[in-house]
């Protein structure tokens, strides 16, 4: 830059030219020194070039030949290369397919399981597919579709399993009746077996029927209780061997849907949702089951179906309790049972109050006992049911009293109120067997002869015993002590005597057109029934094994009942006599202004005295067999009292005739006629 910037450019160029000339001279010197070698080298290079040209021609020719020969090999190599590439691709594809095939197989298996409604295995397959197989091939598009469908499949399984659960709930609702019936049959068979074991500790070979097992109790009441022949046997399993297997709940209902649904919801972490839904639906079903039909009280089948449904419901719940872990628990079952017990008791109190048939009430009691025993066998407390039975027992007694009121009315209405004639020993023993009567004088008399009482005495006595047996039948299987049974029977019998029988006797005594002979016979009959009360006491003692001397033992009031009836009959005799006297006195037609008296007593008075004479002849002309009872009547002053009552009433009535307001004046002749009538009365009374 200093050269170009300065003024020494020309000088620099001169120096540079001189430098070039020096170098050219040195190069020339050197070339001259090596020229011969150079020439030799050029000569050799020319030779080499010729040889190289030959070699080139040979190589070119060889290459041409090689190229011609290698075209097929190149084609084969290209083909081999393509095959190797395809082989590598196939191998990679096989490897990928080996990873995808299990996924597809599992998915196909999942679909098949869902199609065949094997939802729990399908859920397990889905779990394996999601966590084991799909992660290995997650980058494929079809796998992403599967992953997106997994929640939908879970929801589908959930919905289908819930649908199966709903079908299951509907199934057990329909089958509750049958399940309860089978459970109650099982309980009945077990109770029959227990009775057989208790009655026959050493059972010989062979099968026993229910009737054979209960033979001793039937013999005890045979031909005595009206209920014995009408006993419905509602709980008997007729024509069935005791050893016959009765199907249980698991045999009548397929519980697998609820198990599957429970497992599915557990796997899906929705167990609590399932439990709440199941319990809610079963509570609703319980309320429906516990709602009794409005006409349940009309037939026993109505009660039986009601109880069968309740038993079936709780048998299913008990089965679920013991075959699942936590789906239902004891607290939930107890809560349902408390609700069921309160509603059942309320329904029984309501509907049983409509029942007026003692046979139906007794059958209902047997059904309630079996219902209680069945549920007690499953661990449910049933003490309140037995308390209700004690309430129904009072109603049963009332229905018995109504029934026996009709029985007594029929007996009293159909009686002829005449002593029972007997023509032979067989008839005599039959009546003595029905009614405890002993009379040495009557036994000595030849046939034909008569009992002092009419037919209603042995009939009423037999019906009282039948009433006692009917009361006893209700007390069976109530787990009552002998003292409680005895007290119950005695109280009911007292009501029968003091209310039912007493009212029937009073109605007979008070009815119109009852004759003096009938009243006298009623007095005789009630006297014998009064004496039979001690035998009724013994009868009750024999069937309850509770001695009358036991503390708190209720006494029978039969003696008072029959005494009251007898007194009412006596009063009715006196009243009837007085009414007849009044009727005759109405015929009295005194002429209070007559100047002269008649020659004899008044006609009405003669007729009245004739009536009284024939009436009192009833007391003095009884049959020979009744003489003993005539003495009873006389000792009781019935005849004397009747006579005195009639005379007193007659004298009072005659006095009233004189003192009537209409009689303002009378003559001596009228008084003499009246005095003649009074003297006639005195004379006849003395006779």
UniProtKB/TrEMBL annotation:
Q: Where is this region: Disordered?
A: 190-232
| Coiled-coil residue spans | 13-83
Q: Specify one Pfam family.
A: EXOC6_Sec15_N
A single GO BP term for this record reads:
intracellular protein transport
Keyword line: Coiled coil, Exocytosis, Transport
Q: Which InterPro entries match?
A: EXOC6/Sec15, EXOC6/Sec15_C, EXOC6/Sec15_C_dom1, EXOC6_Sec15_N, EXOC6PINT-1/Sec15/Tip20_C_dom2
Domain Exocyst complex subunit EXOC6/Sec15 C-terminal residue range list: 384-685
The Polar residues compositionally biased stretches are: 222-231
| TM segment ranges | none
Pinpoint the Exocyst complex component EXOC6/Sec15 N-terminal domain residues.
15-184
GO CC, sorted alphabetically, is: exocyst; plasma membrane
Q: Which family does it belong to?
A: Belongs to the SEC15 family.
Name of the featured protein: EXC6B protein
Q: What is the lineage of its organism?
A: Eukaryota, Metazoa, Chordata, Craniata, Vertebrata
